[in-house]
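User: I'm writing a tutorial on reading structure tokens. Could you give me a worked example: one chain, its sequence, then its tokens, then a sentence or two explaining what the tokens reveal?
Assistant: Sure. Here is the example chain.
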Amino acid sequence: MIYDPRLWILIGFIAMLVIVFVAVNLMEARRKKAMESLAREFGFEYSSADEQPLVAQLEEVYLIPPRSPGSVSNVMRGHKDGIEIVIMDYTRIYKERNLEVTVAMLSSDQLNLPHFFMTPEHAGIKLALSMSGLSDINFDSHPQFSSKYLLLGHDEVAIRKRFGNDVLKLFENENGWTVFAHDDKIFLYRGNKKTAVSQIKNSLDQSIEVLNLLKP
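And here are its predicted structure tokens:
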């Protein structure tokens, strides 16, 4: 038998891919089970399937157009304090990487929000958003907020009215939030990865706090 090191390298590479594939699927199965259990605890409905109408609602409000439609999974639906709530794991494909986050979509007829997009400041997002033709909305009274977050939208006057002192102070003390909204809907996620199931309740409570502060 001829020993060919290239063959063993190929076998090792394939074995590594199989191990990664199995590990990822096990993690997803555990997350699905945990999300379904959390939905029951909340008294919410649960669906593991991709729901493109939800993706369309989300991406219609997002200011950076995707190269292709994203997908959602682990969708939880319910109501709390008169607010319609959808929590979902959202995946979006970019050229350089995938975005995989847990998004809360909150709906309330009391909102009537101007269309805006807020996200942490970094060079990549600035480049992408420069094509929108919108300028960053800064607040001289809250330089810490303005240094941490980009805030964009077409109606600057209306946006400034909603971003009052309490909203600005909240985000000055919080890192990593992306918030985008229009009319009666607001979408929120934090960081650049899926929220741990154990942290979803706390994240939802914070999201509702933001919604209440943004009411007129």
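What the tokens reveal: The chain has seven helices and eight strands. The first helix runs from residue 5 to 42.
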